[in-house]
Write a structure and sequence with these properties.
- The protein has helices at residues 3-11, 14-27, 85-95, 116-121, 150-153, 156-163, 175-182, 186-196, 206-209, 225-230, 271-280, 393-396, and strands at 33-34, 48-53, 74-78, 104-109, 141-146, 167-170, 201-204, 215-216, 239-240, 259-262, 304-308, 312-318, 324-330, 349-354, 369-377, 384-385, 403-409, 412-415.
- It is α/β, with parallel strands linked by helices.
- The protein has one domain (3-415): Class I glutamine amidotransferase (GATase) domain (Rossmann fold), CATH 3.40.50.
- It has a ten-stranded mixed β-sheet, with helices on both faces. Strands 10-11-14-15-17-18 form a six-stranded mixed β-sheet.
- Helix 6 (156-163) packs parallel to helix 8 (186-196).
- The radius of gyration is 21 Å and the shape is globular.
- Residues 1-8, 12-31, 335-340 and 391-399 have low confidence and may be disordered.
Length: 422
């Protein structure tokens, strides 16, 4: 399989995944190994399962690295586009795989191919420009499980395969599929059981989007920043759960509480829609501000958003003091231009927190929300404390110049200092 096909089958949107699958069928191409497509009774299995390496080389009765009592929660949030090699290595190292224990790395998705398997497992070859080298980090296998509907999500094999995982990564695609097909099923239960064991969990693009307290569900398709800012309740602004709830949506890791995520923030100009997602989370207040259906306050530890640029990841670990510390990981320190910035925009993570309630947040009316704080993390040597969030600046940040403020006035973002423009 050529490099173009492999690369696109990892991270492009759903339409391209389907095209890639069609090309694979037409050309007879495949990578890795696949289990039989039929069950014991001869019926076709509703899921697809592929692997690189040998997932059976370590028995399920062997000591499990996921049962290490000293392990604490960890998450890899990836912004889409080219994958961040080092992010996967961090997941593998954090899982604690050794030559004695081995380790299973599982990728789940609703559509697409098994192209992640060789990329994560191998350390060299002609297909990828870079490899993660998982087998050199003691991985026993990298496995891909394609779960394309609720029937597949209810299959006992799917539950068993996920529960065996020592690391879990949710691929890109269409987050509406993940919410429609997986939420409230064995897949949902299995992911939460992994998190309860502090198994490292990650996601990219659509896989990132379902890791928040509130998720942009895309049930009616994508939404542009201009559409979101112009009408926070337009038909494309679908959020999960619906209605919003303090208990959260699909997966809701405790370390990511009160947050909503967005991917491809730089190349697709999505900071405005991320701000609007956050605004929608703010509850009605006594002064008349807030958004109908909101559940959280603004400021302090209230509603917040995290946006990631392409080829950029945020690695989050919970330390011994219980702090959720995040740092940027990237393949390329200046991979894109955020128009109309004249210079390349640093590969960055954007932390958004509103300091005040929206004053206008209604259907068919442009959003007005004052004083949003945006911190652009474009330095891989700086840790961001998600537990305290925008406090203790002198301790957390290498440069105060990375913090910007904006007011949204009638659907237009007005920056006090203009690192971005719309």
């Amino acid at each position: 399989m050529n490099h173009f096909h492999h690369l696109f089958s990892r991270w492009v949107p759903r339409a391209w995944y389907l095209l890639a699958l069609g090309l694979s069928a037409t050309l007879g191409l495949a990578s890795g190994n696949a289990v039989a497509a039929k069950g014991p009774g001869g019926g076709k299995l509703p899921y697809s399962y592929f692997f690189a390496g040998n997932p059976g080389s370590v028995a399920d009765t062997a000591p499990r690295i996921a049962d290490d009592p000293l392990k604490r929660p960890s998450f890899l949030l990836m912004g889409g586009g080219p994958d961040v090699d080092e992010g996967f290595r961090l997941m593998i190292r954090k899982a604690g795989a050794t030559a004695a224990t081995g380790g299973r790395f599982l990728v789940i998705r609703a559509t697409g191919t098994d192209a992640y398997n060789d990329y994560i497992y191998e350390s060299d070859g002609a297909v990828w420009p870079s490899y993660v080298g998982g087998k050199d980090l003691h991985l026993t296998s990298v496995e891909t499980l394609i779960i394309p509907n609720r029937t597949a999500a209810a299959h006992p094999d799917v539950l068993n395969i996920i529960q065996r995982a020592d690391m879990l990564f949710i691929a890109g695609g269409d987050q509406a599929d993940y919410i429609n097909y997986w939420k409230g099923t064995n897949v949902d239960l299995a992911i939460k059981s992994l998190m309860a064991r502090n198994v490292p969990v990650g996601g990219t693009s659509a896989g990132l989007m379902v890791l928040g307290h509130v998720d942009f569900s895309a049930l009616n398709g994508a939404v542009k920043s201009s559409q979101a800012l112009g009408d926070p309740y337009n038909r494309y602004m679908t959020l999960d759960p619906d209605p919003l709830s303090l208990s959260g949506g699909f997966i809701v890791p405790a370390a990511l509480e009160h947050a909503v995520f967005d991917a491809h923030v730089d190349t697709r100009d999505r900071l405005g829609r991320l701000m609007t997602f956050v605004g929608r989370m703010i509850q009605k207040a006594g002064g008349g501000g807030g958004c109908s259906g909101g559940i959280l306050p603004s400021g302090a530890m209230g509603a917040r958003g995290i946006g990631l640029g392409v080829a950029t990841a945020l690695w989050i670990e919970v330390d011994a003091q219980g702090r959720h510390l995040g740092r940027r990981v990237t393949n390329d320190a200046s991979n894109s231009t955020y128009p109309p910035d004249p210079e390349p925009t640093p590969s960055a993570v954007y932390f958004v927190r509103p300091q005040g309630d929206p004053s206008t947040c209604a259907a068919k009316k442009p959003l007005t929300m004052p004083r949003l704080e945006v911190y652009r993390l474009a330095d891989s040597t700086v840790s961001f404390d998600l537990s305290s969030w925008f406090t203790n600046y002198s301790d957390q940040y290498s440069s105060g110049a990375a913090t910007f403020y904006a007011d949204i006035q009638a659907g237009t973002i007005d920056w006090a200092a203009k690192p971005f423009a719309y």
